[in-house]
Amino acid sequence: EADIYQTPRYLVIGTGKKITLECSQTMGHDKMYWYQQDPGMELHLIHYSYGVNSTEKGDLSSESTVSRIRTEHFPLTLESARPSHTSQYLCASSEHLPYTEGELFFGEGSRLTVL
Amino acid sequence: AQTVTQSQPEMSVQEAETVTLSCTYDTSENNYYLFWYKQPPSRQMILVIRQEAYKQQNATENRFSVNFQKAAKSFSLKISDSQLGDTAMYFCAFINQGAQKLVFGQGTRLTINP
């Protein structure tokens, strides 16, 4: 199994709360990603990072923010959660080497429900 | 725009049968990489198989093999002797060489019945 961890696995919170989804990897990967996925549906890239202090928005607009202060850590924050944020959030990482392009290692996901 | 299309939202076969999942993609580049990822229920997404576009030989990993047709931009996954543990969502994906992001298809939900 891949060495990438997400917490919490499940979270149920009320509207307006601030939440942070944690993602950590022990593989020393430079690249990290956050995907949003509704159950049984396609993945949408919402944030990515190519290294410390590097963050970019993905293809799907998201009200969440991310930070990359340390290589191994890539947390995602929602300042004020809404029911429309209910979804599964998948964190992934990869090496920055040509022959490993596209090989992502995924965490188990954080399933967020906003009431 | 680069796209990946999986035309089969759901598939179901009996255990031990062979099943083929379809995937087509669109890119104007010549050098790229193709992937099939597996997402079992409530478990981590994992890489199943990878194909480099410059290689003519189809990739194989145990019971999993691909049929890569570069001219047709087709990349299907064949699962032989299917097992109950193969039940999962399967995502086709590709990335152009030197590109920043992987492009995923919509996924195919595969159920293996006992």
Descriptive overview:
The complex is a heterodimer of chains A (115) and B (114). With 115 residues, chain A is an all-beta fold. Chain A contains no helices and eleven strands. The model of chain A has no long low-confidence stretch (mean pLDDT 91). In chain B, the strands form three sheets. In chain B, strands 2, 5, 6, 10, 11 and 12 form a six-stranded mixed sheet that branches. Chain B has a four-stranded antiparallel sheet with strand order 3-9-8-7, with no helix packed on it. Chains A and B meet through strand 5 of A and strand 5, strand 6 and strand 10 of B.
List keywords for this structure.
heterodimer; A: 115 residues; seven-stranded mixed beta sheet; 0% helix; B: six-stranded mixed beta sheet; four-stranded antiparallel beta sheet; 12 strands
Q: Ranges of chain B with pLDDT <50 over ≥5 residues?
A: none
Number of beta strands of chain A = 11
The largest contact between protein chains, plus residue counts on each side, is: A-B, 22 and 25 residues
Give the mean pLDDT of chain B: 93
Give the rounded overall mean pLDDT of chain A: 91
Q: How much of the sequence of chain A is in beta strands?
A: over 45%
The shape of chain A is globular
Counting copies of identical and different chains, the oligomeric state is: heterodimer
Topology (SSEs and partners):
The complex is a heterodimer of chains A (about 120) and B (about 110).
Chain A: E1 4-7, E2 10-13, E3 19-25, E4 31-37, E5 43-51, E6 54-57, E7 65-66, E8 76-78, E9 87-94, E10 105-106, E11 110-114
Parallel strand pairs in A: 2-11
Antiparallel strand pairs in A: 1-3, 3-8, 4-5, 4-9, 5-6, 7-8, 9-10, 9-11
Chain B: E1 3-5, E2 10-14, E3 19-21, E4 24-26, E5 32-39, E6 46-52, E7 60-61, E8 64-69, E9 74-79, E10 88-96, E11 103-104, E12 108-113
Parallel strand pairs in B: 2-12
Antiparallel strand pairs in B: 1-4, 3-9, 5-6, 5-10, 7-8, 8-9, 10-11, 10-12
